[in-house]
Amino acid sequence: MSNCEQCIVRQFSALKALNKDELVKLAACKTSHIIKKGAPLFEEGESVNGIYCVTSGVCKMSKLSSNGKDQIVKLIKAGELIGQRSLISDEPANLTAVALEDMEVCFIPKSEVLSLFDANNQFSMNLMKTVCGDLKETSDHMVSISQKTVKERLAETLIYLEETFGKNEDGSLHIQLSREELAGMVSTATESCIRLLSDFNKLGLIELHGKKITIIDSNKLKRIAD
Amino acid sequence: MSNCEQCIVRQFSALKALNKDELVKLAACKTSHIIKKGAPLFEEGESVNGIYCVTSGVCKMSKLSSNGKDQIVKLIKAGELIGQRSLISDEPANLTAVALEDMEVCFIPKSEVLSLFDANNQFSMNLMKTVCGDLKETSDHMVSISQKTVKERLAETLIYLEETFGKNEDGSLHIQLSREELAGMVSTATESCIRLLSDFNKLGLIELHGKKITIIDSNKLKRIAD
DNA sequence: AATTTTATATGATTAATGTCAGCTTTTTTA
DNA sequence: TAAAAAAGCTGACATTAATCATATAAAATT
């Protein structure tokens, strides 16, 4: 059982409000897990009974629609919490969480979160701000899907991926998504996504080497994205 | 200055957790307002500095996109609160709120909400649940826009309007939206919306008399909506 | 009441994007 | 390493839904 006081990623989530005693108590009740790439943390409809704190790795939160397409609602990276919404709503998960890379996560049981919620106003305020931030992002995402073209959304998504997850030493996007997953973020068909990537490539906006995507002209991409 | 203790709609929002003292204090600091149909409560980008509690009437929360279309993100009815998200995030409004009917609202200043938040755990938990509910709805709405056809979404929206706002004695939808507004909810062009309403009419699923829409076969509509 | 403006309606056309099919490359598994 | 499976790519085509044009009806204004 590792220490929560030393945990760096804590600073990035609502947990930053916890005091020493609370952290000791947290360390005692949390459990650590390794989630392999492609494995689910939980699936839509499951009862989660706690929240996950991501120590390393990235995961996608998505919803499978009746036509078999996986719409990615958001990506989560180290330092963020997963499952707050359904914990607070006291409902089963609305989205499926699947690891995009090998992940390390800590599971904090619901009872512990609720007791923190009661005892620590700053913690609950932080949690609330996170959920409110998610709500704003999701509203904006919704408007973007309904008002922008696929090309604009793809450009927007590529910029988002670079800004949020950074790049490798060779300049390529650090996060590796399949074309299908990228399409799921953009909300388009896989073929359309591939075709537009290929167009961007021909226009010199990006470079493609297998799964690696390198953004060459981010200003032009930003202009396309609006 | 009217009484908050006697206010019925309080029961429908996070405010139901307030005790007698808190309600007296609330009554003393809140202000009541009449908003005429078509008038804005606030616009995107404005600082709201408090929350509105809707006593009567309905309003739309929408976002104007660069191409001039108004995407309606959600509708709000009596008993609900408006502006929690930006209050908690401490940000300007992300959406514009416009009255669809004459409305009565009470404005509660930010300082009062924050002090309730600190003093009353149940209140903050309620507020949090509301925001989480909004987040789930918005996520689902987003997936619906990206995965369903316009026809399916229109059917879905009509069912939602009947279930949420009820019908008049003659069976027509109680809430009256322009075709443009309905299109804004469905996320489609006004013409497409009109055309599909006309199709539904010909198929005997609904009846149109001017602005009045009457749902005739809600089962078939539900089947179309999925 | 007449006129202007706005909303609703419908047809024709175009543009955007999804679907299907076939092929190549990459990855996985035996 | 060979074979099989999955992912990526491209072209052809179909479909959906947006746009444009125009007509009618309703509402607002003079």
Q: What's the main sheet of chain A like?
A: 4 strands, antiparallel
Kindly provide the name of the CATH class of the largest domain in chain A: Mainly Beta
**Distance linking N and C termini of chain A:** 48 Å
Walk across the major sheet of chain A and give the strand order.
1-8-3-6
The second-level CATH architecture of the largest domain in chain A is Sandwich
SSE arrangement of chain A, N to C: HEEEEEEHEEHHHHHEEH
Largest interface by Cβ-Cβ < 8 Å: A-B, 41 and 41 residues
**CATH homologous superfamily heading of the largest domain in chain A:** Jelly Rolls
Secondary structural class of chain A: alpha+beta
Work out the strand percent of chain A: 15-25%
Count up the helices of chain A: 8
In quaternary terms, these chains amount to homodimer
Give me the count of strands of chain A.
10
* The CATH topology of the largest domain in chain A: Jelly Rolls
> Which regions of chain A are unreliable across 5 or more consecutive residues at pLDDT < 50?
none
Radius of gyration of chain A using CA atoms only: 19 Å
Report the average pLDDT across residues of chain A: 95
Helix content of chain A: 40-55%
Number of domains of chain A: 2
Q: Quick one: overall form of chain A?
A: elongated
Keywords (chains A, B): DNA-binding, Transcription, Transcription regulation
Domain HTH crp-type (chains A, B): 148-219
InterPro entries (chains A, B): cNMP-bd_dom, cNMP-bd_dom_sf, Env_Response_Regulators, HTH_CRP, RmlC-like_jellyroll, WH-like_DNA-bd_sf, WH_DNA-bd_sf
GO cellular component, one term (chains A, B): cytosol
